[in-house]
Specification:
The chain has 543 residues and is an alpha/beta fold. The chain has three domains: 179 residues, Alpha-D-Glucose-1,6-Bisphosphate, subunit A, domain 3 (Alpha-D-Glucose-1,6-Bisphosphate, Chain A, domain 3, 3-Layer(aba) Sandwich), CATH 3.40.120.10; 223 residues, 3-Layer(aba) Sandwich (Alpha-D-Glucose-1,6-Bisphosphate, Chain A, domain 3); 134 residues, Alpha-D-phosphohexomutase, C-terminal domain (TATA-Binding Protein), CATH 3.30.310.50. It has a seven-stranded mixed beta sheet, with helices on both faces. It has a seven-stranded antiparallel beta sheet with strand order 20-21-24-25-26-19-27. A five-stranded mixed beta sheet has the order 11-10-12-13-14, sandwiched between helices. Helix 7 crosses helix 13 and helix 10 packs parallel to helix 11. The structure holds alpha-D-glucose-1-phosphate-6-vanadate (VG1) and cobalt (II) ion (CO). The site of cobalt (II) ion (CO) has 7 residues, from loops.
Length: 543
């Protein structure tokens, strides 16, 4: 074995986005591309010498290849120990759990999350720090600086390891252990929720369907739902991780989890349905003939947290990403606790969680989590719902309807315009920003604008400022529009329009969502000139 120093030149496009570096597989396959970025991570954290990392991914195409390269680079850079998920598998929440439990220096997660996989699909690299959470902006900015000036990287010429067998070996001076990717995470879940109550729910014939979308959560769901909770194996759909996700787009929403949705909306469908994304940090929750909006899910969990053993003692506070509906704010107000509003992306919750300011947090993009780890957590949310169903004996629909009755309903939807010409998308946002001072008190589509701004966030713990995190337009009656460009796409630009309308009157809670939001949807087009500028008459995706 020998350590080689390889000369290289920078790639100028290695700026991490909302959640790590995401590119087409073909981009990552270019010589030196992955290596440059990994070396930039090590350089940005003052070297890997003496450090310990967990490494694994969502099983997508290029996962194992990338892991072999990273093992050789971490060893060459002097890491003292590496923990690798068997078969290269590790969900994002499990990686966070392992970093925290074993007090590691950090983790490298190979995933492009909810983006499609396969040789023509996407690949990604996320770096998590020692608290188990995504690297904060200060760190991702340093990684980008290092990537822009990189001249060399270190790599061992050791042979590839067999990732299929658990056990320990040594590469250069580094201890490398292939670990069970599931057990630590499953133990953590068992310590949070009332597994006895959930077990007895299943034993009474409660029916559920869980769709792992051929992505990373299959093995986790098997261990937790089937082995530990006694659900029948038939409750699992697409439970084998596949390199191309079986052609699926592993994004758990009404459009991409079609089969699951059909089952839940069929005659005599199951009582409960759920799905997770590529790397297991997202969740979609369904009842029989009923879809739970992710923003509502966060609010419902917060309002019913006392049913879960771990949260019985009460919540320190709640946080939600800015575009997420304000349903959680109503609960926080009722409980007399703080509700923080952060920019999009889990990295902004880390400081609040570390400081003990919040217990629960969530995003409108099917992400919910708590202080048990530092990532959003798909299966955790599913177990939380199962715990509520077991403890209350109510259906999903009844729980949500009771919630609306108590707090009012936040009608909410996100409209995505995908693969736009980046120049057109940027100009749309720039012009919208320039227009903000003139919007106040104007009436658009029958709605009066109360306030309009460009969201800036000052981290309450370390004072770090993040500007331009989305344009917000507030109307009368607590209605709101938010516009921002995605930071996770790999093709052109994606414009996200977030539409929210609050309805306290429960006689109006049955209105179809898009109907209730119609005046706001019109206002969004008038204000941002979406159709005119993009030539798109419909969003590509409505969630
Ligand atoms: C999207 C979501 C955001 C989420 C991020 C990562 O980002 O909107 O809420 O945190 O994906 O999720 P963007 O910049 O495309 O809007 V995951 O499950 O992809 O790691
Ligand atoms: Co994800």
């Amino acid at each position: 074995m020998a350590i080689k120093e390889i000369k290289t030149t920078p790639f100028k496009d290695q700026k991490p986005g909302t959640s790590g570096l995401r590119k087409k597989v073909k981009v990552f396959q270019q010589p030196h591309y992955l290596e440059n970025f990994i070396q930039a991570i090590f350089n940005a954290i003052g070297g890997a010498s003496g450090k310990t990392f967990v490494i694994g991914g969502d099983g997508r195409f290029y996962n194992s290849r990338a892991i072999q390269t990273i093992i050789k680079m971490a060893s060459a850079n002097g890491a003292s120990a590496l923990y690798i998920g068997q078969n290269g598998i590790l969900s994002t929440p499990a990686a966070s759990c392992i970093i925290r439990k074993h007090k590691l220096s950090g983790g490298i997660i190979l995933s492009a999350s909810h983006n499609p996989g396969g040789p023509d699909g996407d690949f990604g690299v996320k770096f998590n720090i020692e608290n188990g959470g995504p690297a904060p902006e200060q760190v991702t900015e340093r990684i980008f600086e290092e990537a822009c000036k990189i001249e060399r990287y270190l790599i061992s010429d050791a042979p590839d390891l067999d990732l299929t067998v658990q056990g320990e070996t040594v590469v250069e001076q580094t201890k490398v252990e292939i670990i069970d990717p599931v057990s630590d995470y499953a133990d953590l879940m068992e310590s949070i929720f009332d597994f006895n109550a959930i077990r007895s729910l299943f034993s009474k014939g409660f029916r559920m369907k869980y769709d792992a979308m051929n992505a990373v959560t299959g093995p986790y769901a098997k261990e937790i739902l089937v082995k530990r909770l006694g659900a029948p194996e038939s409750c699992l759909m697409h439970a084998e991780p596949l390199e191309d996700f079986g052609g699926f787009h592993p994004d758990p929403n009404l459009k991409y989890a079609k089969e699951l949705v059909q089952e839940l909306f069929s005659d005599n469908g199951p009582d409960f349905g759920a799905a997770s994304d590529g790397d297991g940090d997202r969740n979609m929750i369904l009842g029989r003939n009923f879809f739970v909006t992710p923003s509502d899910s966060l609010a419902v969990l917060a309002s019913n947290a006392q049913f879960v053993p771990e949260y019985k003692k009460g919540l320190a506070g709640i946080a939600r990403s800015m575009p997420t509906s304000r349903a959680a704010d109503k609960v926080a107000e009722h409980l007399g606790i703080s509700c923080y509003e952060t920019p999009t992306g889990w990295k902004f919750f880390g400081n609040l969680l570390d400081a003990g300011r919040i217990t629960l947090c969530g995003e409108e993009s099917f992400g919910t989590g708590s202080d048990h780890i530092r990532e959003k957590d798909g299966l955790w949310a599913v177990l939380f719902w199962l715990n509520l169903l077991a403890a209350t004996g109510k259906s999903v629909e009844k729980i949500v309807r009771d919630h609306w009755h108590k707090y009012g309903r936040h009608f909410y939807s996100r409209h995505d315009y995908e693969a736009l010409d980046p120049d057109i998308a940027k100009k749309l946002m720039d012009d919208l920003r320039a227009k903000l001072p003139t919007l106040k008190n104007t009436t658009v589509s029958g709605l009066q604008v109360r306030h309009a701004d460009d969201f800036s966030y000052v981290d309450p713990i370390d004072g770090h400022v993040s500007k331009h995190q989305g344009i917000r337009i507030f109307f009368e009656n607590e209605a709101r529009l938010v516009f921002r460009l995605s930071g996770t796409g790999t093709v052109g630009a994606t414009l996200r329009v977030y539409i929210e309308h609050y309805e306290p009157d429960h006689s109006k809670h049955d209105m179809p969502v898009q109907k209730a939001l119609e005046p706001l949807i019109k206002a969004a087009d008038i204000i941002a000139e979406i159709k005119k500028r993009t030539g798109r008459y419909q969003p590509d995706l409505i969630t």
